[in-house]
């Protein structure tokens, strides 16, 4: 018999009652160190007082307005984001997938408005994850997400991640844009070399293409800058953001230059809930914190301390951990054993983390963690690795005896 909630998630049998900072608490009082953070969403941790205050204040005034009317919080948020980024304009959504849908539509509309409607194809990269809509699963190209949903939506040409020659070969008369995650999260915490991003920018300029960045997971301070592309010293034409921008409240946005957005006139796109007053109040509160002077520098300092401890773990447990990778506080442990084994052992020790491709365990803590949480993470990971090693040793002994 099917469950009341559609069984599309392989859920862990844990029910959490509340959260505080980097910690989650079950109804039974068990405490877990949360290095999932809603999969890079809760950038300020759980129940951050400034976010709670902003949401509570807005909830007592106005929850929802149609976008037929001006929404003051959205106008303020847009002004702050354009001031802090490359963008001249933006469209607010509820999720990253919606932000990517807007980005895809915008790129196609740009070329149509420029008199070249045939330039609707977008080059994407193997290992990418852009969402779960029909367009974004086609853009990602992952067979397991495409299976069973009929013909893949046309318009995407996928090439190997980081392969500049393959990108050049894929550019044709119908190519309109290149779409890439500066750091692939679900794809295995793989960073695009910053020089590669600069080459993509140059290719787009040379061929009249739009550069679209998916910073849904790697943006909003996750790599130690507001957005990851800043490390490469480039700017995109269009960028999709979500996750961290709402700090736990569903918020997404498609940011763009005035030129890239020239085709998006009244009636070309819309959303019922995108940019609603509750979401805008929380997103503005997130910016209050992450745009404070010194915030990103502290993320980098925290990342350096955490990476040092993770490198120590790798040296202590070579039978479990093969590599430490990633940027800022978007980190990954490529494991020797199945990554699910380490995740299960971590959970037994009271620590939560999600998986990724390439046999990687992602570590996505709140950006506000300190030394206490780093020490706790080291202790729990150390114990989890020791637990796995004991099992490996026991299995080896059984095999020898047989």
Automatic annotation (TrEMBL):
<feature type="binding site">
    <location>
        <begin position="214"/>
        <end position="217"/>
    </location>
    <ligand>
        <name>pyridoxal 5'-phosphate</name>
    </ligand>
</feature>
<protein>
    <recommendedName>
        <fullName>Acetylornithine aminotransferase</fullName>
        <ecNumber>2.6.1.11</ecNumber>
    </recommendedName>
</protein>
<dbReference type="InterPro" id="IPR004636">
    <property type="entry name" value="AcOrn/SuccOrn_fam"/>
</dbReference>
<dbReference type="InterPro" id="IPR015424">
    <property type="entry name" value="PyrdxlP-dep_Trfase"/>
</dbReference>
<dbReference type="InterPro" id="IPR015422">
    <property type="entry name" value="PyrdxlP-dep_Trfase_small"/>
</dbReference>
<keyword id="KW-0663">Pyridoxal phosphate</keyword>
<dbReference type="GO" id="GO:0003992">
    <property type="term" value="F:N2-acetyl-L-ornithine:2-oxoglutarate 5-aminotransferase activity"/>
</dbReference>
<feature type="modified residue" description="N6-(pyridoxal phosphate)lysine">
    <location>
        <position position="243"/>
    </location>
</feature>
<feature type="binding site">
    <location>
        <position position="129"/>
    </location>
    <ligand>
        <name>pyridoxal 5'-phosphate</name>
    </ligand>
</feature>
<feature type="binding site">
    <location>
        <begin position="96"/>
        <end position="97"/>
    </location>
    <ligand>
        <name>pyridoxal 5'-phosphate</name>
    </ligand>
</feature>
<comment type="subunit">
    <text>Homodimer.</text>
</comment>
<dbReference type="InterPro" id="IPR049704">
    <property type="entry name" value="Aminotrans_3_PPA_site"/>
</dbReference>
<feature type="binding site">
    <location>
        <position position="271"/>
    </location>
    <ligand>
        <name>N(2)-acetyl-L-ornithine</name>
    </ligand>
</feature>
<keyword id="KW-0963">Cytoplasm</keyword>
<comment type="similarity">
    <text>Belongs to the class-III pyridoxal-phosphate-dependent aminotransferase family. ArgD subfamily.</text>
</comment>
<dbReference type="InterPro" id="IPR015421">
    <property type="entry name" value="PyrdxlP-dep_Trfase_major"/>
</dbReference>
<keyword id="KW-0808">Transferase</keyword>
<dbReference type="InterPro" id="IPR005814">
    <property type="entry name" value="Aminotrans_3"/>
</dbReference>
<keyword id="KW-0032">Aminotransferase</keyword>
<dbReference type="GO" id="GO:0009016">
    <property type="term" value="F:succinyldiaminopimelate transaminase activity"/>
</dbReference>
<feature type="binding site">
    <location>
        <position position="272"/>
    </location>
    <ligand>
        <name>pyridoxal 5'-phosphate</name>
    </ligand>
</feature>
<dbReference type="Pfam" id="PF00202">
    <property type="entry name" value="Aminotran_3"/>
</dbReference>
<comment type="pathway">
    <text>Amino-acid biosynthesis; L-arginine biosynthesis; N(2)-acetyl-L-ornithine from L-glutamate: step 4/4.</text>
</comment>
<feature type="binding site">
    <location>
        <position position="132"/>
    </location>
    <ligand>
        <name>N(2)-acetyl-L-ornithine</name>
    </ligand>
</feature>
<dbReference type="InterPro" id="IPR050103">
    <property type="entry name" value="Class-III_PLP-dep_AT"/>
</dbReference>
<keyword id="KW-0028">Amino-acid biosynthesis</keyword>
<keyword id="KW-0055">Arginine biosynthesis</keyword>
């Amino acid at each position: 018999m099917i469950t009341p909630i559609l069984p599309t998630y392989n859920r862990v049998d844990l029910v959490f009652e509340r959260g505080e900072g980097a910690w989650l608490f079950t109804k039974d009082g068990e405490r877990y160190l949360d290095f999932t953070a809603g999969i890079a969403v809760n950038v300020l941790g759980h129940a951050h007082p400034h976010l709670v205050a902003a949401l509570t204040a807005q909830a007592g005034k106005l929850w929802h307005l149609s976008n037929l009317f001006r929404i003051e919080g959205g106008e303020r948020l847009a002004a702050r984001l354009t001031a802090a980024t490359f963008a001249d304009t933006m469209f607010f959504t509820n999720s990253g997938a919606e932000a990517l849908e807007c980005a895809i539509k915008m790129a196609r509309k740009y070329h149509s408005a420029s008199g070249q409607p045939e330039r609707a194809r977008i080059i994407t990269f193997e290992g990418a994850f852009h969402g779960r809509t029909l367009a974004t699963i086609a853009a990602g190209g992952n067979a397991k997400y495409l299976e069973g949903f009929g013909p893949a939506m046309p318009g995407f040409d996928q090439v190997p991640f980081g392969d500049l020659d393959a990108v050049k070969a894929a550019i044709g008369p119908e190519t309109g844009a290149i779409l890439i995650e500066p750091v692939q999260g679900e794809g295995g915490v793989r960073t695009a070399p910053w020089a590669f991003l600069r080459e993509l920018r140059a290719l787009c300029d040379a061929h009249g293409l739009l550069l679209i960045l998916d910073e849904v997971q790697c943006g909003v301070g996750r790599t130690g800058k507001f957005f990851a592309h800043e490390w490469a010293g480039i700017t995109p034409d269009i960028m999709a953001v979500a996750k961290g921008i709402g700090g736990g409240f569903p918020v997404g946005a498609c940011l763009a230059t005035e030129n890239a957005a020239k085709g998006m006139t009244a009636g070309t796109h819309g959303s019922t809930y995108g940019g609603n007053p509750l979401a805008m109040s929380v997103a503005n509160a997130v910016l209050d914190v992450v745009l404070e002077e010194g915030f990103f520098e502290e993320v980098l300092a925290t990342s350096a301390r955490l990476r040092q401890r993770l490198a120590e773990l790798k040296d202590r447990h070579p039978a479990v951990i093969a590599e430490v990778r990633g940027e800022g506080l978007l980190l990954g442990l490529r494991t020797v054993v199945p990554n699910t084994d380490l995740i299960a052992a971590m959970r037994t020790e009271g620590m939560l983390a999600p998986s990724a491709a390439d046999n990687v365990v992602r570590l996505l803590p709140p950006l506000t963690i300190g030394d206490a949480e780093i020490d706790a993470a080291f202790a729990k990971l150390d114990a989890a690795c020791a637990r796995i090693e004991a099992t490996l040793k026991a299995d080896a002994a059984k095999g020898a005896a047989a």
